[in-house]
Give the backbone structure.
Amino acid sequence: MIDFSRVQKELQECSRDIESSGIRVTPKSDNLGRLTGIIPGPTGTPYEGGTFCIDITLPDGYPFEPPKMQFATKVWHPNISSQSGAICLDILKDQWSPALTLKTALLSVQALLSAPQPDDPQDAVVAQQYIKEYQTFVGTARYWTETFAKVSSLGVEEKVQKLVEMGFPESLVRSTLEAVGGDENLALEKLCSG
Amino acid sequence: MEDYGDSDEECYYSDDRESLDGLDNEDSHFQRVTPKGPKVIRKESLLAAQREDLRRVMELLSLREHHARTLLIHYRWDVERLFAVLVEKGKSFLFTEAGVTIIESQDNDSQQTSCSTVRCDICIEDLSRDKATRMDCGHSFCNDCWTEHFIVKINEGQSKRIRCMAYKCNAICDEAVVRNLVSKRHPDLAEKFERFLLESYIEDNKMVKWCPSTPHCGNAIRVEEDQFCEVECSCGMQFCFSCLSETHSPCSCLMWELWSKKCRDESETVNWITVHTKPCPKCHKPVEKNGGCNLVSCVCGQAFCWLCGGATGRDHTWSRIAGHSCGRYKEDQEKKTERAKRDLYRYMHYHNRYKAHTDSFELESKLKKTIMRKVSISEEKESRLRDFSWVTNGLQRLFRSRRVLSYSYPFAFYMFGEELLEDGMTEVDREIKQSLFEDQQQQLESNVEKLSKFLGKPFEQYSDDKVMDIRMQVINLSVVTDSLCKKMYECIENDLLGSLQPGMHNIAPYKSKGIEKASELTTGWSSKTNATNMFLSSSGGTSKQERPSDSGSSDDSGCFALKRARKEDGGYFDLNLPAEVVDRS
């Protein structure tokens, strides 16, 4: 069974210093087994200014087994799957210790955003780009942050507006934009071809 | 000569009479407790088996048992390596690597005892001090959290290395604490933990292996020094310790693996088909030519030319098929077929002989009963001949030599073939070595057959003089085949395998007395003397005082002479020493 009293305490502890850490953990429902973590993108990185949501599922053995964490916000990072949001981080696997908490784990994830480890990639495509074309990587990562991690991303709404005005249905426009990573030209090309 | 057969003690007493060991009654020999040689480890003696290693580590480093175990598990029960690391890198490196922490001072403890409650960082509760446990590394958490952690780790299969709960703390938890806490909540899980810990001695130790018997007898076998040996478990299972398959010396493990695979799979059948058949151009079934001219017709009705395999009409003359000509010579095709044919014949040559000897071995095993009946008839007779141990001894010798002989064929197949050792030696070298080996093999073969012939005679109907004559023959042949086997092994080890890359092919040493039976582990012996014994391994033969008192006087017998000789010369690769060195020592 999950130690809910500990989870409760962790949540209190977390909300106490929300100002300094910027890290927020909120339960998705009443049962505390599923939570959402929110971390701000670290300054000085392509993720700066973004707000990243992380789905947290607590296993029965928590805190003796590591929590399962996955990015809900799309993010361009060598150690995070651009498809599924899966995170490759040792403390979420064999290096987990019951002395760690959701907050410390989220802090580690935040640290991972500032210090990618392309040698141990989760997403090979991103890692290749990181190694070979660093500038392109920074551009894409920033673009993804702009597109997906900004709470009210006006840019996207404007693009949607523009494409809808061209005569495409709104739902299709949105899904196409997302599929091509927010690039309106690519989206237009795709909409025209298919 | 009358009396050596039934008193093998005397026979074994001195090494210079070793040549007579073809005549001993080996059944009684290995059941005696010997301090050296393979041991059977049972469920009950598993703990006792690891005591010695634990004690050595505990004494040298003045450690508690669980620390010693943690170290040994980390170093896979290789005490020598553990000591080597200690000498090279020092104690603290050794301990940190393995996750052993020993707190020197108790300052922390005394400071903390001042307050009566502690906060557990895991469940974030304040609780009284007696409900928390402090591990050797200094980290303290409440008992409930510890228990939960242990249960998760045991279920994950990590019993052997349960680390402290603190982040980045590499220390391994005290097994006594684990045992104690877990048994309060889950006694069966605590038992599982215990078993995992104990079985590490088998699982993680290259000198100990589970007996491969099916259904499993539950035993494990421990060997000394040489992993290349053949042993018999107390359940009767005989196996090669190195590869856990059936005993196969003088074949190396790799050769045996290839050979048994070759015999199993159909690659040779496929070879035969390539050589002797051609596919029908219409239905593609393989067609064998059963005589007649080169115009062949398949069961499907299609006619084709046997020379080129091409479809033809049905009209033909003696010299040519109507509208068809294929005189052009295709060299590649020819060569391929030739090669396949040669390989097949070569394999068949070795396989037939291997099979013949294996079959004889099986038949002769049945012979044992008949012969024993003959012996009992003879013993009933009014005769001055009372002792028939030469018959049983001769029979045992026949079995052992037959075994050697049959496995010598797959050995030769790979040793002198191209499949395994393509660049092993030059053509000339190969020819010389092959004829040397084959001479020995043939000598052994003829003597084994002779021995078999004499043992098969109906001696129970013969007169005393005639029996005496057979007896002499059997005794002589026993000694001869034994020494021929020994020579063959020496030739293989030194002249043949010795010239190859070391370590690739190792064979179990020749045992005159057959496959060594693993003896029961004696738990009573003083570990001190045994430890010294190990350290003094370079000082030649074991002296009497070092032996346990209950082991009888036969320990110094010839069966260990070869092994000990190897050991004295040190190192693992002394398999390749010239025979004289082994003999001299």
